[in-house]
Fold this sequence. Notes:
The complex is a heterodimer.
Chain A lengths: L1 H28 L4 H6 L5 H10 L6 H13 L13 H35 L5 H13 L4 H15 L20 H27 L2 H8 L4 H39 L4 H11 L2 H29 L3 H4 L1
Helix pairs in contact in A: 1-12, 5-6, 5-8, 5-10, 5-11, 5-12, 6-8, 7-8, 7-10, 8-10, 10-11, 10-12, 11-12
Chain B lengths: L18 H30 L28 H36 L3 H14 L4 H11 L4 H28 L2 H8 L4 H38 L10 H8 L8 H35 L1
Helix pairs in contact in B: 1-2, 1-9, 2-3, 2-5, 2-7, 2-9, 3-5, 4-5, 5-7, 6-7, 7-8, 7-9, 8-9
Amino acid sequence: MRSYAAGRAALAVVQLAVLSVLVFALTSLLPGDAADLRFTETLSPEQVERLREQLGLDQPAAERFGHWFGQVLTGDLGTSLISGGPVVDIVRDSVGATLVLTIATLAIVVPLAVALGILMGTRENGRLDRTITSITLALSAIPDFVIAVVLVAVFSLKLGWLPATWIGGDLLTSPVLLVLPVAVLLGRTVCLLSRQVRAGTINTLNADYITQARRLGVPRRRLLFRHVLPNAAVPGVQELARTGDTLLGGVLVVEAIFAIPGFATALVDAVETRDLPVVQALTLVLAVAALLLNLLADLTCNRLVPRSALLK
Amino acid sequence: MSGRKEDALSSPQPTPRGPLVRVFAVLRRIPVAVSVVLVGVPLLVAVLGPLVPHDVKPGMPYAADGVLGTDGLGRDVFGLLLVGGRTALGMAFGAVVLAYLVGGVIGLVAASTRHRWLDELLIRPLDVLLPLPSLLVISVVAVGWRASALAITVAVAMVNVPTVARLVRAAALDAASSPVVEALRMQRESWVTIQLGYVGRAVLGPVAADIGTRITLAVFLVASVNFLGLGLSPTAPDWAVSISRNREGLLLQPWSVLAPALLLVAFTLGFNLLADRLVHRTRRPAEVTA
């Protein structure tokens, strides 16, 4: 167990190192740099050259990477090309809204998906199972932004029950702001996750050791929670880590639609204005978060079912 | 296993017979036809749409002219629908094909090589890339190659390569360790015959099921990117871009949003249904033995 954790953590460190090189490489490979993009119309070529020198863009990539990485390690993410302020501030200002949104969503998604998954799995091909399966299948086929657009039109524009944007709103005074965004994020994640839990439950229920336990007369409740659930949770937990990906996509869309001043909005803005230091920093932070989520998921799976490490 | 159909927790019970069961039996037969129609309509619109002559002259915004009225820029919604599918579905298809060309080859080579180091060399780097959030990669690409359909397609493909490679490798390893391959090898069949003649064909099942789900995911991803404005230009006739542009006018002129949304949803829903059946058919035996 401990050696598995150590090995997995070592992989995460390697992943982290490779990732930071990748993030930097991807962003510096992009055609045109900040200097000639922002000023080609107003400045002469010599001035652009001087600006490039100032921004350190004339140095070789390896040197720039070393400089950037050294700064990142000390917690300095650089300076925004657009606002001129430190990137760390942008990260700090935008992370709150996104965290609240994500945590609120996960707090509903996980229990709901597990409950639905077990409900379906223990009644494989029953009426209830088929009904929920069809609903989740249909729901998971609708893109987040379509759900969002329709919900906003109905509940905000038509009925006026819920706010359509976060502009001018404060989360602390009006938590109702969260309702529509979280509802949008719930849709696909619950569907994807509950289907995995269902599959895990069915697979586990068909395992020989469950048959044996049933034969020994283990009570139904104990069988379900003690023997089935930990094993059935494995695909669910792994899916949860992958759901992070779906969720992030959803968060990007939701933040854009509801004008939420979060991480994704900052990222899209930075992409639009080609503010490279900000794109680099936000990408790095999000990638690290995704890595940690995956690490956590793998360790949890190993904890639930120690042999899953061998299966990998 | 015989107890699969019943409630697996309690002892086997006789299956209930009644009108509802018969209704379900009928319902279960419908989806194939329904899902083919669901996939077919958007696909036909996307493929044949650009060939249909239509009026491109802009009129009044959100007016009721033409079949489905006009959008926020005064463009004919029906005309937009006809030309918008090419990017919405084409980019996704292109990305999946590309992902399989690259990932499939990596996976097959990794699975069939006799050198362990080559396998490690091909698969390990992908482990590093696997947890990267896909929209993140795409937004970085979007910084440099704005509004380029090709760049977005390649980015979506690259995001899918690690999973495809691993899936193909796992499926091929499964097939390669079967008694059939052992027998073929003992008959001194050539490497190519074994790989293409048996392993390749055995891989097709899981691959077909995966392509089904992967295409819907790619359609989603492409649509999200375009919706966010990270992909195609905001005036492109693409379905997702249209939804994004006209979302404020949903109540004024619902078709400007609902028509492209319905086509997108029909396509992904239909593909999901087809893929679901395929998964059931190909995974069933494996699950029982697992």
